[in-house]
Write a structure and sequence with these properties.
Layout: H1 3-15, H2 20-35, H3 37-40, H4 44-53, H5 68-78, H6 84-91, H7 96-102, H8 106-112, H9 118-129, H10 140-151, H11 156-181
Helix pairs in contact: 1-2, 1-4, 2-4, 2-9, 4-6, 5-6, 7-8, 9-11, 10-11
């Protein structure tokens, strides 16, 4: 089975019914990933699979630590025996090491999962941080503001996302620069 079909079906089974808004976001992130094909070449399917799977750790069936990148990557590794590169992208999506640090899990995350190639890490940050919770398009500034508003500025997520903001902005700019180089519109 093609990796993108497998990833879509698995994410749908874990999110569509229990967390429909999270599923809509994941589908939007997947669509964003597809739009990056001109700059990803042979890694396009890998990014699309990781994009649709990036939030599976929110599934009530998978929550163990309460830190969705770690819970999702562990499930994909232990139960699904997923490709190592997908595990790395899910585990480290959208500056997850910074959030792991806020949660006291940085050493655990870093020990269990390596970080994928920088251009793919950037691409997944771009896809996640330019997609609304309902799967629509947005820009990184509005996405970060929405996250802070939803979780609160003093929450773990609110603190982490503000710390991650410079790297999120830089990753999105690197992706936009690559898109412009091939004549594709960025965000």
């Amino acid at each position: 089975m093609e990796v993108t079909v497998w990833a879509h079906d698995l994410a749908k089974s874990l999110l569509a019914e229990s967390l429909p808004r999270r599923w809509a976001h994941s589908c939007g992130v997947r669509e964003r990933a597809r739009s990056l094909a001109p700059i990803l070449g042979p890694d396009s399917a890998l990014l699309e699979a990781a994009a649709v799977l990036h939030d599976v750790g929110y599934s009530p069936k998978l929550v163990k630590t309460g830190f969705h990148p770690l819970d999702g990557a562990r499930f994909l590794r232990d139960a699904e025996h997923a490709d190592e590169r997908i595990l790395q992208l899910v585990a480290h999506h959208s500056c997850a090491l910074l959030e792991a640090e806020e949660r006291g899990l940085r050493d655990v995350l870093a020990a269990e999962f390596d970080v994928e190639e920088a251009h793919l890490v950037d691409a997944l940050v771009f896809c996640d941080m330019t997609t609304t919770p309902d799967g629509g398009h947005t820009d990184p500034d509005d996405r970060i503001a929405e996250i802070v508003s939803r979780y609160g500025p003093d929450s773990v997520v609110g603190r982490f996302i503000r710390r991650a903001e410079p790297e999120i902005q830089a990753a999105c700019e690197r992706v936009n620069r690559r898109l412009r180089q091939v004549g594709s519109p960025g965000v």
